[in-house]
Write a structure and sequence with these properties.
single chain; mainly beta; Immunoglobulin-like; 10-stranded mixed beta sheet; 5 helices; 33 strands; elongated
Length: about 525
């Protein structure tokens, strides 16, 4: 006999082999099984990914595929050359070991066996374990199901001894000594399986297939070391989060872009974990046809880069730069021989090279209603931001992500690097500068009554003139990009100003004036504008 002293709590790890034997009883003995291996994963940044898998087929026309990630609706593809003609989803109940259990669970699982129990007060009880009594609901209403309650394992243990039946509280048990190997506590669980049905047995053949799945994502993280002569070292690293599957020596592709996949939140019925009611509900909530809220449709793409490459005739070996590829409007960073266990995260460098940069200062002056609330005589009306304009001189796109900027190892700012294709520019806003100030003043110079087209009444229009003043207190010239918001119709923005008007069908339009100019060190620059505002 063996004593099991577990301090009032049983850990199933001691019986892991026994648990495997128990849980394997319900598996189909006549059905061949093939483990599935992930070969390639293309990660989108919103938690969805295209997975390419393969399995070596054993003997038989029905092969159970094990280790598959969850597929999403309408994305499953496979290579018919292997002879697979159908994938079948099913579920079954199996006995699985309980991960964490106490003496009540252990003794309840060994009803009818002989046991010797030691209690905390050094008293021993030896006898046969009796079944526990379960209670039915006290309410006998027809609305209450008259079946045994599925409550937790009972905490009172009944043992039949030579002197009668003894009641033992599970928390009083110190150890238990069984006359034979004890039965591991098990629970009923639903196991979901996917079976490949073949036209004829094809042992040794490789079955390749793929689909869109969830459970993995990536996020770019940049560092920018600003050097002299307008050159900076840009390094990109990828934060990869894996909650999908075990990855061993796979080709990992990190996708940058904005593809679209309707119904991405709907799991495929191929996995029978999806109940019919839930499936229909999600299908109704997340399809573009039945929902006016387009934000519910996840931004991903299908059917997959693989299908696009074959359809478009793109040679996978073609690449402007090792590890980089563009397919349609998407950009791929490829990491070969990537390994990562499920539940782990990896930080991996993608690229690092020199890029040119320029100092730029930006300022957005609010409209007149905000100026009235915020402005005080002699104080700036808007913040001037010191920015960096980077030019992508490489062959890889920059995916939107956080960037940390340093100079000689000292941090000078942390910002967002926005998407930039090769040859394009991206503007980083680093710090609010204290060496420049912007003032704005406006005055109404005229008030007019004008006819309204098609109406008998007249409208009152105020004509306003304004001036924006920028002062450069630094020791270097400033390239300024200034934007002035206006409620009304801008009539003059000077020779260098550009006007963008957003129409309004119920009042004054919204206008934005933009200027780009250079302010020399220690100098002051003024910009004039005028606009019309319809007074209620």
């Amino acid at each position: 006999m063996g004593a099991y002293a577990i301090g009032g709590r049983m850990n199933a790890r001691a019986f892991i082999l026994w648990g495997v034997m128990v849980s394997g009883v319900a598996m189909g003995a006549n059905q061949a099984s093939a483990p599935v291996q992930v070969r390639k994963v293309a990660l989108f940044k919103n938690g969805f990914n295209w997975v390419e898998l393969s399995a070596t087929l054993p003997e038989g026309r029905q092969v159970r595929l094990s280790g598959m990630p969850q597929a999403l609706l309408g994305t499953v593809w496979w290579d018919a050359a292997s002879g697979v003609r159908e994938l079948e989803g099913s579920s079954e109940e199996i006995d699985s070991s309980v991960a964490d259990y106490d003496y009540a669970d252990l003794l309840a699982a060994n009803v009818g066996r002989q046991v010797n129990i030691m209690l905390k007060n050094d008293r021993q009880i030896e006898g046969k374990i009796l079944p526990q009594v379960t209670e039915k609901p006290t309410d006998d209403s027809f609305l209450q199901p008259q079946e045994e309650t599925k409550s937790q394992a009972p905490k009172i243990i009944l043992v039949e001894t030579g002197d009668g039946v003894q009641c033992v509280t599970a928390t009083e048990v110190v150890w238990a000594d069984f006359s034979e190997s004890p039965q591991l506590p098990v629970k009923k669980e639903t196991s979901h399986r996917v079976t490949a049905l073949l036209e004829r047995p094809n042992p040794g053949a490789t079955f390749r297939f793929g689909y869109v799945s969830g459970g993995m994502s990536w996020l770019p993280e940049y560092s920018l070391e600003l050097g002299e002569n307008g050159t900076a070292k840009l390094t990109c690293r990828a934060n990869i989060i894996n909650e999908m599957a075990e990855l061993e020596d796979v080709e990992l592709q990190l996708v940058s872009g904005f593809p679209s996949l309707g119904g991405a939140l709907v799991a495929s019925p191929l996995n029978r974990a999806v109940k019919l009611a839930d499936f229909l509900e999600k299908l109704g909530l997340h399809t573009e046809e039945s929902s006016s809220d387009h934000t519910r449709n996840s931004v991903v793409s299908a059917p997959a880069p693989m299908a696009l490459r074959r359809k478009r005739g793109v040679d996978e070996s073609e690449s402007d730069e090792p590890g980089s590829r563009q397919v349609e409007d998407l950009f791929y960073y490829t990491l070969p021989h990537f390994s990562c266990r499920r539940g782990e995260s990896v930080l991996r460098e993608i690229f690092s090279y020199d890029v040119p940069y320029e100092h730029v200062y930006t300022c957005r002056v609010p409209n007149q209603s905000e100026l009235e609330r915020r402005s005080r005589r002699g104080e700036p009306v808007a913040d001037v931001w010191h920015c960096m304009r980077l030019t992508n001189t490489g062959h890889q796109a920059w995916s939107t992500g956080i960037v940390t900027c340093t100079v000689a190892g000292q941090i000078v700012g942390r910002s967002t690097l926005y998407f930039a294709a090769p040859g394009a520019e991206s503007l980083l806003r680093l710090n609010k500068t204290m060496q420049a100030s912007v003032q704005c003043s406006e005055v109404m110079v005229n008030r007019e009554e004008r006819d309204i087209l098609g109406a008998k009444r007249k409208k009152v229009v105020g004509v306003y003139q304004g001036v924006v003043t920028l002062k450069n207190d630094s020791a270097r010239a400033m390239e300024l990009q200034l934007a002035k918001e206006v409620n009304g119709l801008v009539t003059d923005a000077g020779k260098d100003g550009k006007i963008n008007v957003s129409p309004s069908y119920s009042g004054n339009p919204r206008s934005v004036i933009t200027w780009k100019f250079i302010v020399k060190p220690g100098e002051e620059s003024q910009l004039n504008y005028s606009y019309e505002f319809e007074i209620d």
